[in-house]
Amino acid sequence: MAAIKRVRQHVNPLSNKYSTPAAAPDWGDVFKNPQLPLHLDIGCAKGDFVRAMAHQLPDWNFLGLEIRAPLVERSLMKRDRDHQHNLHFIFCNANNSLRSVLANYPGGLQRVSIQFPDPWFKKRHQKRRVVQPELVCVLADLMVRSDSMVWLQSDIESVCVEMCDRFDEHPAFSRDGIKWLGDSPFPAKTDRERVTQEKGLPVYRARYFLSADP
């Protein structure tokens, strides 16, 4: 029996190991219909959320980005086992790969989810957090101009506040209300979301739409 690779809980995205941007796949090879709108899940971990979403919403394509290669390998194996032709995973550093990966996606990027990202609690490590101004700018450039949405959630309020601050700073995005949202708009949950709710703990949620005239 092959040994199971140990997966690190925390990966430093600023390490030289992750400094090379990922290349875009041949979309016709990875999706049965690359003209479908795309839902991008940044930091998809084991991929359970997008795998469930792809099963329940066949009229969308789903792409999970994850910086831990063993998790991507396992997610791709499960995708192939289940014959999910509207689902793909890419091993990459989202902070330097979004543009190179998605610039030529034919169906248009319409939804983005960033859920329970690594909080990097220490002040000196917070520059490693995934939602940086550059990432928000790239999303504004890549997302199509109708029915486009970014979904943010975390079980740590300060982390969600900071993510919201970054999107609030960009004129292309408008927040849906000013308070935390009560429910997710999606028919699937992440593992962390499910466990947090089972413990009776709060989940902080916010939704942003791409403005008509950014």
Determine the CATH topology: Rossmann fold
**First CA to last CA: what distance?**
54 Å
Share of residues in strands:
15-25%
Number of helices: 7
Order of helices and strands: HEHEHEHEHEHEHE
Indicate the radius of gyration in whole angstroms.
Answer: 16 Å
Q: What would you give as the CATH superfamily?
A: Vaccinia Virus protein VP39
Domain module count: 1
Number of strands: 7
Shape: globular
Helix and strand content put the structural class at: alpha/beta
Could you name the ranges where pLDDT drops below 50 across 5 or more consecutive residues? none
| CATH architectural category | 3-Layer(aba) Sandwich
**Overall pLDDT level:** 90
The biggest beta sheet reads: 7 strands, mixed
Task: Please list the strands of the largest sheet in the order they lie side by side.
Answer: 3-2-1-4-5-7-6
Helix share of residues?
A: 25-40%
Short précis:
This protein is an alpha/beta fold and 214 residues long.
Show the helix and strand layout.
Layout: H1 27-30, E1 38-42, H2 48-56, E2 61-66, H3 69-82, E3 87-91, H4 94-102, E4 109-115, H5 133-142, E5 149-154, H6 157-168, E6 173-175, H7 191-198, E7 204-210
